Amino acid sequence: MALHENLIGGAWVGGDPVANINPSNTDEVVGEYARGTEKDARDAVAAAKAAFPAWSRSGLMERHAILSKAADEIMARKEELGRLLAREEGKTLPEGIAEAGRAGQIFEFFAGEALRLTGETVASVRPGVGVEMTREPVGVVGLITPWNFPIAIPAWKIAPALCHGNTVVLKPAELTPGCAWALVDILKRAGLPDGVLNLVMGKGSVVGQAMLDDPDVNAISFTGSVATGKRVAAACVEHMRKVQLEMGGKNPMVVLDDADLDIAVETSVNGAFFSTGQRCTASSRLIVTQGIHDRFVDAVVARLKALSVDNALKEGTHIGPVVDQSQLEQDERYIAIGRDEDGANLAFGGERLNRETPGFYLQPALLTEATNAMRTSREEIFGPVASVIRVKDYEEALATANDTPFGLSAGICTTSLKHATHFKRNSEAGMVMVNLPTAGVDFHVPFGGRKGSSYGPREQGRYAQEFYTTVKTAYTLA
Ligand code: NAD
Q1: Residue 430 is part of a domain; what is its CATH number?
Q2: What residue owns the CA closest to ligand 1's atom 16?
Protein backbone atom coordinates (compact mmCIF):
# COMPACT_ATOMS: atom_id res chain seq x y z
CA MET A 1 0.00 0.00 0.00
CA ALA A 2 1.45 3.39 -1.03
CA LEU A 3 2.36 5.65 1.86
CA HIS A 4 0.72 9.09 1.91
CA GLU A 5 3.49 11.45 2.95
CA ASN A 6 3.67 14.84 4.61
CA LEU A 7 4.17 17.90 2.44
CA ILE A 8 6.99 20.14 3.66
CA GLY A 9 8.40 22.97 1.55
CA GLY A 10 6.92 21.48 -1.62
CA ALA A 11 8.45 18.01 -1.10
CA TRP A 12 6.68 14.86 0.01
CA VAL A 13 8.40 13.60 3.16
CA GLY A 14 7.99 10.08 4.55
CA GLY A 15 7.53 8.83 8.10
CA ASP A 16 6.36 5.81 10.06
CA PRO A 17 3.19 4.48 8.45
CA VAL A 18 -0.05 4.74 10.39
CA ALA A 19 -3.04 2.69 9.24
CA ASN A 20 -6.26 4.66 8.68
CA ILE A 21 -9.05 2.27 9.74
CA ASN A 22 -12.62 2.29 8.39
CA PRO A 23 -15.07 2.56 11.34
CA SER A 24 -17.76 0.78 9.26
CA ASN A 25 -15.41 -2.15 8.68
CA THR A 26 -12.48 -2.35 11.03
CA ASP A 27 -10.90 -5.07 8.86
CA GLU A 28 -10.37 -2.49 6.14
CA VAL A 29 -7.37 -0.17 6.01
CA VAL A 30 -8.34 2.96 4.08
CA GLY A 31 -4.71 3.93 3.56
CA GLU A 32 -1.35 4.39 5.22
CA TYR A 33 -0.31 7.87 6.32
CA ALA A 34 3.09 9.11 7.48
CA ARG A 35 3.34 9.99 11.16
CA GLY A 36 4.95 13.42 11.41
CA THR A 37 7.55 14.30 14.03
CA GLU A 38 8.44 17.44 15.96
CA LYS A 39 11.19 18.05 13.42
CA ASP A 40 8.68 17.78 10.57
CA ALA A 41 6.52 20.39 12.26
CA ARG A 42 9.49 22.74 12.76
CA ASP A 43 10.63 22.21 9.15
CA ALA A 44 7.11 22.92 7.92
CA VAL A 45 6.94 26.18 9.90
CA ALA A 46 10.37 27.18 8.53
CA ALA A 47 9.21 26.41 4.98
CA ALA A 48 6.03 28.46 5.49
CA LYS A 49 8.09 31.34 6.90
CA ALA A 50 10.44 31.25 3.90
CA ALA A 51 7.50 31.20 1.46
CA PHE A 52 5.63 34.07 3.15
CA PRO A 53 7.34 37.16 1.64
CA ALA A 54 6.63 36.11 -1.95
CA TRP A 55 3.14 34.71 -1.34
CA SER A 56 2.01 37.69 0.72
CA ARG A 57 2.88 39.90 -2.27
CA SER A 58 1.50 37.53 -4.91
CA GLY A 59 -0.95 38.92 -7.45
CA LEU A 60 -4.66 38.56 -6.90
CA MET A 61 -5.08 36.73 -10.19
CA GLU A 62 -2.57 34.09 -9.10
CA ARG A 63 -4.45 33.43 -5.84
CA HIS A 64 -7.78 33.51 -7.64
CA ALA A 65 -6.58 31.04 -10.30
CA ILE A 66 -5.16 28.54 -7.79
CA LEU A 67 -8.21 28.63 -5.51
CA SER A 68 -10.55 28.29 -8.53
CA LYS A 69 -8.59 25.39 -9.95
CA ALA A 70 -8.72 23.61 -6.59
CA ALA A 71 -12.47 24.26 -6.37
CA ASP A 72 -13.01 22.80 -9.83
CA GLU A 73 -11.09 19.63 -9.02
CA ILE A 74 -12.85 19.14 -5.67
CA MET A 75 -16.23 19.55 -7.40
CA ALA A 76 -15.29 17.19 -10.21
CA ARG A 77 -14.14 14.56 -7.69
CA LYS A 78 -16.74 15.09 -4.97
CA GLU A 79 -18.19 11.56 -5.26
CA GLU A 80 -14.74 10.01 -4.86
CA LEU A 81 -13.73 12.38 -2.04
CA GLY A 82 -17.09 11.81 -0.35
CA ARG A 83 -16.49 8.06 -0.49
CA LEU A 84 -13.05 8.49 1.07
CA LEU A 85 -14.63 10.65 3.79
CA ALA A 86 -17.33 8.06 4.45
CA ARG A 87 -14.69 5.33 4.68
CA GLU A 88 -12.36 7.09 7.09
CA GLU A 89 -14.86 8.96 9.28
CA GLY A 90 -18.12 7.03 9.01
CA LYS A 91 -20.52 9.67 7.66
CA THR A 92 -22.99 8.14 5.23
CA LEU A 93 -22.01 8.35 1.56
CA PRO A 94 -24.55 11.14 0.76
CA GLU A 95 -23.34 13.10 3.80
CA GLY A 96 -19.73 12.56 2.72
CA ILE A 97 -20.40 13.72 -0.85
CA ALA A 98 -22.27 16.77 0.44
CA GLU A 99 -19.35 17.68 2.69
CA ALA A 100 -16.86 17.30 -0.17
CA GLY A 101 -19.10 19.53 -2.31
CA ARG A 102 -19.15 22.08 0.46
CA ALA A 103 -15.35 22.11 0.51
CA GLY A 104 -15.47 22.88 -3.23
CA GLN A 105 -17.95 25.71 -2.67
CA ILE A 106 -15.73 27.20 0.03
CA PHE A 107 -12.81 27.34 -2.41
CA GLU A 108 -15.08 28.90 -5.05
CA PHE A 109 -16.16 31.53 -2.56
CA PHE A 110 -12.62 32.46 -1.54
CA ALA A 111 -11.42 32.40 -5.15
CA GLY A 112 -13.95 35.22 -5.62
CA GLU A 113 -12.92 36.95 -2.41
CA ALA A 114 -9.33 37.07 -3.64
CA LEU A 115 -10.56 39.56 -6.27
CA ARG A 116 -12.50 41.63 -3.78
CA LEU A 117 -9.88 42.54 -1.17
CA THR A 118 -10.68 46.05 -0.02
CA GLY A 119 -9.51 48.74 2.35
CA GLU A 120 -10.84 52.12 3.35
CA THR A 121 -9.72 55.67 2.84
CA VAL A 122 -10.95 58.44 5.11
CA ALA A 123 -10.17 62.09 5.66
CA SER A 124 -7.86 62.88 8.56
CA VAL A 125 -8.79 65.23 11.35
CA ARG A 126 -5.65 67.12 10.22
CA PRO A 127 -6.23 69.08 7.00
CA GLY A 128 -4.03 67.90 4.14
CA VAL A 129 -3.50 64.43 5.58
CA GLY A 130 -5.02 61.26 4.14
CA VAL A 131 -5.69 58.07 6.12
CA GLU A 132 -5.77 54.59 4.58
CA MET A 133 -6.81 51.41 6.35
CA THR A 134 -5.58 48.26 4.66
CA ARG A 135 -5.57 44.58 5.55
CA GLU A 136 -2.34 42.63 5.47
CA PRO A 137 -1.79 38.89 5.91
CA VAL A 138 -0.88 37.73 9.40
CA GLY A 139 2.06 35.50 8.38
CA VAL A 140 2.53 31.80 9.10
CA VAL A 141 -0.78 30.35 10.18
CA GLY A 142 -1.04 27.00 11.98
CA LEU A 143 -4.29 25.13 11.38
CA ILE A 144 -5.25 22.32 13.80
CA THR A 145 -8.40 20.41 12.87
CA PRO A 146 -10.69 17.69 14.31
CA TRP A 147 -11.90 14.45 12.75
CA ASN A 148 -15.63 15.14 12.48
CA PHE A 149 -15.58 17.35 9.34
CA PRO A 150 -12.36 16.04 7.82
CA ILE A 151 -12.57 17.96 4.53
CA ALA A 152 -14.87 20.93 5.26
CA ILE A 153 -12.96 22.24 8.27
CA PRO A 154 -9.49 22.11 6.65
CA ALA A 155 -11.12 23.77 3.60
CA TRP A 156 -12.74 26.59 5.56
CA LYS A 157 -9.43 27.39 7.23
CA ILE A 158 -7.02 26.89 4.29
CA ALA A 159 -9.07 28.81 1.70
CA PRO A 160 -9.29 32.15 3.58
CA ALA A 161 -5.71 31.79 4.84
CA LEU A 162 -4.38 31.52 1.27
CA CYS A 163 -6.83 34.05 -0.15
CA HIS A 164 -5.50 36.71 2.22
CA GLY A 165 -1.83 35.93 1.51
CA ASN A 166 -0.86 33.81 4.53
CA THR A 167 1.26 30.68 4.42
CA VAL A 168 0.01 27.58 6.18
CA VAL A 169 0.95 24.52 8.21
CA LEU A 170 -2.00 22.12 8.50
CA LYS A 171 -2.19 19.43 11.17
CA PRO A 172 -5.29 17.31 10.65
CA ALA A 173 -6.79 14.93 13.24
CA GLU A 174 -5.05 11.57 13.67
CA LEU A 175 -8.24 9.64 12.84
CA THR A 176 -8.90 11.31 9.48
CA PRO A 177 -5.72 12.20 7.59
CA GLY A 178 -7.09 10.98 4.23
CA CYS A 179 -9.31 13.93 3.28
CA ALA A 180 -6.70 16.45 4.43
CA TRP A 181 -4.02 14.71 2.37
CA ALA A 182 -6.27 14.67 -0.72
CA LEU A 183 -7.07 18.36 -0.31
CA VAL A 184 -3.40 19.34 0.07
CA ASP A 185 -2.49 17.22 -2.96
CA ILE A 186 -5.16 19.04 -5.01
CA LEU A 187 -3.88 22.45 -3.92
CA LYS A 188 -0.27 21.56 -4.66
CA ARG A 189 -1.18 20.46 -8.16
CA ALA A 190 -3.34 23.57 -8.61
CA GLY A 191 -0.06 25.50 -8.63
CA LEU A 192 0.69 26.67 -5.08
CA PRO A 193 4.37 27.66 -4.78
CA ASP A 194 6.51 25.43 -2.57
CA GLY A 195 6.15 26.07 1.16
CA VAL A 196 2.90 28.07 0.92
CA LEU A 197 0.87 25.11 2.18
CA ASN A 198 2.47 22.39 4.31
CA LEU A 199 0.89 19.28 5.74
CA VAL A 200 2.15 17.48 8.85
CA MET A 201 0.01 14.56 9.95
CA GLY A 202 0.48 12.93 13.34
CA LYS A 203 -0.25 13.24 17.03
CA GLY A 204 -1.59 16.40 18.61
CA SER A 205 0.77 16.03 21.55
CA VAL A 206 3.75 15.88 19.17
CA VAL A 207 3.05 17.75 15.92
CA GLY A 208 0.35 20.07 17.29
CA GLN A 209 2.40 20.86 20.38
CA ALA A 210 5.51 21.58 18.27
CA MET A 211 3.44 24.09 16.25
CA LEU A 212 2.24 25.76 19.45
CA ASP A 213 5.81 25.96 20.75
CA ASP A 214 7.28 27.42 17.56
CA PRO A 215 7.78 31.20 17.84
CA ASP A 216 7.63 31.55 14.05
CA VAL A 217 3.92 30.64 13.96
CA ASN A 218 2.05 33.97 13.87
CA ALA A 219 -1.50 32.70 14.34
CA ILE A 220 -3.32 29.49 15.20
CA SER A 221 -6.82 28.51 14.11
CA PHE A 222 -8.02 25.51 16.08
CA THR A 223 -11.19 23.42 16.00
CA GLY A 224 -11.63 20.64 18.53
CA SER A 225 -12.47 19.95 22.14
CA VAL A 226 -12.61 22.53 24.93
CA ALA A 227 -9.79 20.81 26.83
CA THR A 228 -7.36 21.04 23.91
CA GLY A 229 -8.63 24.50 22.99
CA LYS A 230 -7.66 25.83 26.41
CA ARG A 231 -4.12 24.51 25.97
CA VAL A 232 -3.92 26.09 22.54
CA ALA A 233 -5.15 29.43 23.90
CA ALA A 234 -2.64 29.40 26.78
CA ALA A 235 0.25 28.66 24.40
CA CYS A 236 -0.87 31.44 22.06
CA VAL A 237 -1.03 34.01 24.86
CA GLU A 238 2.47 32.94 25.91
CA HIS A 239 3.69 33.77 22.38
CA MET A 240 1.39 36.83 22.04
CA ARG A 241 0.00 35.40 18.81
CA LYS A 242 -3.43 35.61 17.28
CA VAL A 243 -5.75 32.70 18.08
CA GLN A 244 -9.14 31.47 16.95
CA LEU A 245 -10.84 28.55 18.73
CA GLU A 246 -13.97 26.64 17.70
CA MET A 247 -14.91 24.08 20.33
CA GLY A 248 -17.78 22.09 21.70
CA GLY A 249 -21.51 22.56 21.99
CA LYS A 250 -24.53 21.44 24.01
CA ASN A 251 -27.01 22.89 21.61
CA PRO A 252 -30.66 23.28 22.58
CA MET A 253 -33.61 22.66 20.29
CA VAL A 254 -36.72 24.21 21.83
CA VAL A 255 -40.06 22.73 20.79
CA LEU A 256 -43.11 24.77 21.75
CA ASP A 257 -46.73 23.61 22.03
CA ASP A 258 -47.60 25.53 18.86
CA ALA A 259 -44.87 23.86 16.76
CA ASP A 260 -45.65 21.93 13.59
CA LEU A 261 -45.05 18.43 14.97
CA ASP A 262 -43.63 17.01 11.74
CA ILE A 263 -41.14 19.86 11.42
CA ALA A 264 -40.21 19.56 15.11
CA VAL A 265 -39.57 15.82 14.84
CA GLU A 266 -37.62 16.11 11.61
CA THR A 267 -35.41 18.99 12.76
CA SER A 268 -34.78 17.33 16.13
CA VAL A 269 -33.93 13.89 14.71
CA ASN A 270 -31.76 15.39 11.99
CA GLY A 271 -30.01 17.80 14.36
CA ALA A 272 -29.45 15.28 17.13
CA PHE A 273 -28.62 12.07 15.31
CA PHE A 274 -27.56 12.57 11.70
CA SER A 275 -23.82 12.38 11.09
CA THR A 276 -24.02 10.01 14.10
CA GLY A 277 -24.52 13.04 16.38
CA GLN A 278 -20.85 13.85 15.90
CA ARG A 279 -21.36 17.50 15.07
CA CYS A 280 -20.40 20.43 17.27
CA THR A 281 -23.79 21.89 16.30
CA ALA A 282 -25.79 18.72 17.17
CA SER A 283 -29.03 19.27 19.14
CA SER A 284 -28.21 17.23 22.21
CA ARG A 285 -30.81 18.96 24.43
CA LEU A 286 -34.42 18.79 23.21
CA ILE A 287 -36.33 21.25 25.40
CA VAL A 288 -40.04 20.60 25.00
CA THR A 289 -43.06 22.37 26.50
CA GLN A 290 -45.51 20.16 28.35
CA GLY A 291 -48.50 20.43 25.96
CA ILE A 292 -46.66 18.76 23.06
CA HIS A 293 -44.13 16.74 25.09
CA ASP A 294 -45.67 13.25 24.99
CA ARG A 295 -46.72 13.43 21.32
CA PHE A 296 -43.24 14.68 20.44
CA VAL A 297 -41.45 11.89 22.32
CA ASP A 298 -43.67 9.21 20.77
CA ALA A 299 -43.08 10.59 17.27
CA VAL A 300 -39.31 10.88 17.76
CA VAL A 301 -39.11 7.28 19.01
CA ALA A 302 -41.18 6.09 16.02
CA ARG A 303 -38.87 8.01 13.68
CA LEU A 304 -35.74 6.58 15.33
CA LYS A 305 -37.12 3.04 14.98
CA ALA A 306 -37.34 3.60 11.22
CA LEU A 307 -33.72 4.73 10.83
CA SER A 308 -31.13 2.34 9.53
CA VAL A 309 -27.79 2.29 11.38
CA ASP A 310 -25.29 0.52 9.17
CA ASN A 311 -22.16 0.64 7.04
CA ALA A 312 -21.66 4.22 5.86
CA LEU A 313 -21.31 3.09 2.23
CA LYS A 314 -24.42 0.93 2.18
CA GLU A 315 -27.36 2.35 0.27
CA GLY A 316 -30.22 3.25 2.59
CA THR A 317 -28.06 3.81 5.67
CA HIS A 318 -29.26 6.85 7.61
CA ILE A 319 -26.68 6.76 10.39
CA GLY A 320 -23.15 5.47 10.05
CA PRO A 321 -20.91 4.12 12.81
CA VAL A 322 -19.32 6.04 15.65
CA VAL A 323 -15.82 7.15 14.64
CA ASP A 324 -13.77 4.79 16.84
CA GLN A 325 -13.70 2.52 19.87
CA SER A 326 -12.89 5.21 22.40
CA GLN A 327 -15.69 7.54 21.21
CA LEU A 328 -18.08 4.55 21.30
CA GLU A 329 -17.08 3.85 24.90
CA GLN A 330 -17.54 7.53 25.78
CA ASP A 331 -21.07 7.48 24.30
CA GLU A 332 -21.95 4.33 26.25
CA ARG A 333 -20.49 5.76 29.45
CA TYR A 334 -22.71 8.83 29.17
CA ILE A 335 -25.80 6.76 28.37
CA ALA A 336 -25.14 4.76 31.55
CA ILE A 337 -24.60 7.95 33.58
CA GLY A 338 -27.88 9.39 32.27
CA ARG A 339 -29.89 6.28 33.03
CA ASP A 340 -28.22 4.81 36.12
CA GLU A 341 -26.73 7.77 37.99
CA ASP A 342 -28.84 10.77 36.97
CA GLY A 343 -32.14 8.90 36.75
CA ALA A 344 -33.22 9.76 33.21
CA ASN A 345 -35.35 7.27 31.30
CA LEU A 346 -33.72 5.56 28.33
CA ALA A 347 -36.74 5.72 25.99
CA PHE A 348 -34.94 4.27 23.00
CA GLY A 349 -31.65 2.83 21.80
CA GLY A 350 -28.20 3.00 23.35
CA GLU A 351 -27.15 -0.55 22.52
CA ARG A 352 -24.31 -1.72 20.29
CA LEU A 353 -25.40 -3.23 16.99
CA ASN A 354 -23.83 -5.99 14.92
CA ARG A 355 -23.81 -5.56 11.18
CA GLU A 356 -22.37 -7.52 8.24
CA THR A 357 -19.04 -5.74 8.62
CA PRO A 358 -17.36 -5.25 12.02
CA GLY A 359 -17.76 -1.60 13.06
CA PHE A 360 -18.61 0.80 15.88
CA TYR A 361 -22.38 0.69 15.49
CA LEU A 362 -24.55 2.28 18.16
CA GLN A 363 -28.35 2.53 18.17
CA PRO A 364 -29.17 6.26 18.63
CA ALA A 365 -30.17 6.87 22.25
CA LEU A 366 -33.01 9.07 23.48
CA LEU A 367 -33.03 9.94 27.19
CA THR A 368 -36.34 11.35 28.45
CA GLU A 369 -37.45 12.84 31.80
CA ALA A 370 -34.04 14.50 31.86
CA THR A 371 -33.27 17.71 33.70
CA ASN A 372 -30.91 20.42 32.62
CA ALA A 373 -28.75 19.80 35.71
CA MET A 374 -27.85 16.24 34.68
CA ARG A 375 -24.32 15.62 33.45
CA THR A 376 -25.76 14.35 30.17
CA SER A 377 -27.38 17.78 29.73
CA ARG A 378 -24.27 19.79 30.62
CA GLU A 379 -21.29 17.93 29.12
CA GLU A 380 -20.68 17.37 25.43
CA ILE A 381 -21.09 13.66 24.59
CA PHE A 382 -20.38 13.97 20.87
CA GLY A 383 -22.37 10.94 19.78
CA PRO A 384 -25.91 9.89 18.80
CA VAL A 385 -27.34 10.66 22.25
CA ALA A 386 -29.98 13.31 23.02
CA SER A 387 -31.95 14.23 26.14
CA VAL A 388 -35.53 15.46 26.27
CA ILE A 389 -36.10 18.09 28.97
CA ARG A 390 -39.73 18.88 29.78
CA VAL A 391 -40.51 22.54 30.56
CA LYS A 392 -43.65 24.51 31.43
CA ASP A 393 -43.64 27.32 28.88
CA TYR A 394 -41.59 29.45 26.48
CA GLU A 395 -39.96 31.48 29.26
CA GLU A 396 -38.68 28.35 31.01
CA ALA A 397 -37.57 26.91 27.66
CA LEU A 398 -35.49 30.01 26.85
CA ALA A 399 -33.92 30.08 30.33
CA THR A 400 -33.08 26.37 30.06
CA ALA A 401 -31.67 26.78 26.55
CA ASN A 402 -29.32 29.52 27.78
CA ASP A 403 -28.35 27.69 30.97
CA THR A 404 -25.25 25.98 29.58
CA PRO A 405 -21.51 26.62 29.50
CA PHE A 406 -21.69 26.49 25.69
CA GLY A 407 -23.21 28.82 23.08
CA LEU A 408 -22.67 27.57 19.55
CA SER A 409 -26.07 26.96 17.96
CA ALA A 410 -29.67 27.05 19.25
CA GLY A 411 -32.96 26.21 17.58
CA ILE A 412 -36.66 26.73 18.12
CA CYS A 413 -39.67 25.06 16.52
CA THR A 414 -42.72 27.27 16.74
CA THR A 415 -45.40 28.84 14.57
CA SER A 416 -45.39 31.95 16.76
CA LEU A 417 -43.64 34.94 15.21
CA LYS A 418 -43.53 36.53 18.65
CA HIS A 419 -41.63 33.63 20.22
CA ALA A 420 -39.37 33.10 17.20
CA THR A 421 -38.42 36.78 17.20
CA HIS A 422 -37.86 36.86 20.96
CA PHE A 423 -35.75 33.69 20.79
CA LYS A 424 -33.56 35.05 17.98
CA ARG A 425 -32.87 38.15 20.06
CA ASN A 426 -32.36 36.47 23.43
CA SER A 427 -30.64 33.19 22.69
CA GLU A 428 -27.06 33.22 24.00
CA ALA A 429 -25.74 31.32 20.97
CA GLY A 430 -23.71 32.41 17.98
CA MET A 431 -26.16 30.84 15.52
CA VAL A 432 -29.95 30.61 15.86
CA MET A 433 -32.26 28.42 13.78
CA VAL A 434 -36.04 28.81 13.49
CA ASN A 435 -37.83 25.64 12.36
CA LEU A 436 -34.49 24.32 11.10
CA PRO A 437 -31.99 21.87 12.63
CA THR A 438 -29.25 23.35 14.85
CA ALA A 439 -26.72 21.67 12.54
CA GLY A 440 -26.36 22.51 8.85
CA VAL A 441 -25.08 25.97 7.96
CA ASP A 442 -24.24 27.95 4.83
CA PHE A 443 -20.63 28.30 3.71
CA HIS A 444 -20.70 32.02 2.91
CA VAL A 445 -21.82 33.48 6.24
CA PRO A 446 -20.11 33.61 9.65
CA PHE A 447 -19.85 30.49 11.75
CA GLY A 448 -19.10 30.45 15.46
CA GLY A 449 -20.44 30.70 18.96
CA ARG A 450 -20.21 32.28 22.38
CA LYS A 451 -19.18 31.26 25.91
CA GLY A 452 -17.25 27.97 26.00
CA SER A 453 -17.90 27.20 22.32
CA SER A 454 -15.73 29.77 20.58
CA TYR A 455 -12.97 32.25 21.20
CA GLY A 456 -11.75 34.89 18.80
CA PRO A 457 -13.12 36.09 15.47
CA ARG A 458 -15.72 34.16 13.46
CA GLU A 459 -14.84 31.69 10.71
CA GLN A 460 -16.21 31.57 7.15
CA GLY A 461 -17.67 34.05 4.74
CA ARG A 462 -16.32 37.60 4.59
CA TYR A 463 -15.94 37.60 8.39
CA ALA A 464 -13.03 35.17 8.02
CA GLN A 465 -10.82 38.15 7.15
CA GLU A 466 -10.91 39.32 10.78
CA PHE A 467 -8.67 36.42 11.73
CA TYR A 468 -6.63 35.96 8.55
CA THR A 469 -5.62 39.62 8.20
CA THR A 470 -4.22 42.34 10.37
CA VAL A 471 -5.25 45.96 9.89
CA LYS A 472 -2.78 48.74 9.08
CA THR A 473 -3.60 52.43 9.35
CA ALA A 474 -1.35 54.64 7.19
CA TYR A 475 -1.23 58.48 7.26
CA THR A 476 0.10 60.52 4.32
CA LEU A 477 0.74 64.24 4.06
CA ALA A 478 -0.63 65.19 0.67
P1 NAD B 1 -9.43 17.20 19.98
O2 NAD B 1 -9.40 18.44 20.80
O3 NAD B 1 -9.10 15.92 20.61
O4 NAD B 1 -8.43 17.34 18.74
C5 NAD B 1 -8.50 18.42 17.84
C6 NAD B 1 -7.14 18.60 17.20
O7 NAD B 1 -6.21 19.05 18.20
C8 NAD B 1 -6.55 17.32 16.62
O9 NAD B 1 -5.90 17.60 15.40
C10 NAD B 1 -5.55 16.90 17.69
O11 NAD B 1 -4.51 16.11 17.20
C12 NAD B 1 -5.05 18.26 18.14
N13 NAD B 1 -4.37 18.25 19.45
C14 NAD B 1 -4.57 17.39 20.49
N15 NAD B 1 -3.71 17.69 21.50
C16 NAD B 1 -2.99 18.76 21.10
C17 NAD B 1 -1.96 19.53 21.71
N18 NAD B 1 -1.47 19.26 22.92
N19 NAD B 1 -1.44 20.57 21.02
C20 NAD B 1 -1.90 20.86 19.78
N21 NAD B 1 -2.85 20.16 19.15
C22 NAD B 1 -3.40 19.12 19.81
O23 NAD B 1 -10.88 17.16 19.27
P24 NAD B 1 -11.48 16.00 18.34
O25 NAD B 1 -11.83 14.84 19.21
O26 NAD B 1 -10.63 15.78 17.14
O27 NAD B 1 -12.81 16.70 17.81
C28 NAD B 1 -14.00 16.70 18.51
C29 NAD B 1 -14.25 18.04 19.15
O30 NAD B 1 -14.23 19.06 18.16
C31 NAD B 1 -15.62 18.15 19.80
O32 NAD B 1 -15.50 18.76 21.06
C33 NAD B 1 -16.40 19.05 18.85
O34 NAD B 1 -17.46 19.77 19.44
C35 NAD B 1 -15.33 19.95 18.35
N36 NAD B 1 -15.71 20.58 17.09
C37 NAD B 1 -16.03 21.92 17.10
C38 NAD B 1 -16.42 22.56 15.94
C39 NAD B 1 -16.75 24.02 15.96
O40 NAD B 1 -16.63 24.65 14.92
N41 NAD B 1 -17.14 24.59 17.08
C42 NAD B 1 -16.49 21.85 14.75
C43 NAD B 1 -16.17 20.50 14.76
C44 NAD B 1 -15.77 19.87 15.95
Answers
A1: 3.40.309.10
A2: 204
